[in-house]
Amino acid sequence: MIKHALIFWISVALAVLGLVTRFMLVGFGALTSLIIPLLLLGIVFYANRSFKAGYGRGSGRSQTKVIPSQKTMAKVAGLRKTQSAAPGKRKTYPFQVIEGSKGKNDEQLPKYH
């Protein structure tokens, strides 16, 4: 972790040093070469921010609260009662185990498990 941080800060320092020397040599004409990268960075940042705001939690959009009807609440309450009434019953599944054609032979089992 420290190695990654060291590499990051060395890269930042070299980038700042390069910008400072470019301004000293070329002057403010160096800004013209930075316009396109800064615009692209701004567009990507804005798009990422708006994408997260649209689909993330707490998006800032007001959502209308749906209030269920009494009929729906009665159905849900009835389902909850039937589910909790029979906790010991096993579910029935729509599939079954089919025995293979090889058969079970004790000689084929490995000696050590």
Summarize the structure.
The chain contains 3 helices and no strands. The chain is mainly α and 113 residues long.
List the helices and strands and how they pair.
Layout lengths: L1 H25 L3 H26 L14 H16 L28
Low-confidence stretches: none
Fraction of residues in helices?
Answer: 55-70%
Quote the distance from N terminus to C terminus: 42 Å
Number of helices: 3
Strand content: under 5%
Mass-distribution shape = flat
Radius of gyration: 33 Å
Biased composition (Basic and acidic residues): 101-113
Transmembrane segments: 28-47
Protein name: DUF2207 domain-containing protein
Keywords: Membrane, Transmembrane, Transmembrane helix
Explain this structure to me?
It is a single chain. With 113 residues, the chain is mostly helical. The chain has a domain at 2-55. Helices cover 59% and strands 0% of the residues. It has 3 helices and no strands. The chain has helices at residues 2-26, 30-55, 70-85. The longest helix is centred in the middle third of the chain and has 26 residues, at 30-55. The radius of gyration is 33 Å and the shape is flat. The model has no long low-confidence stretch (mean pLDDT 78).
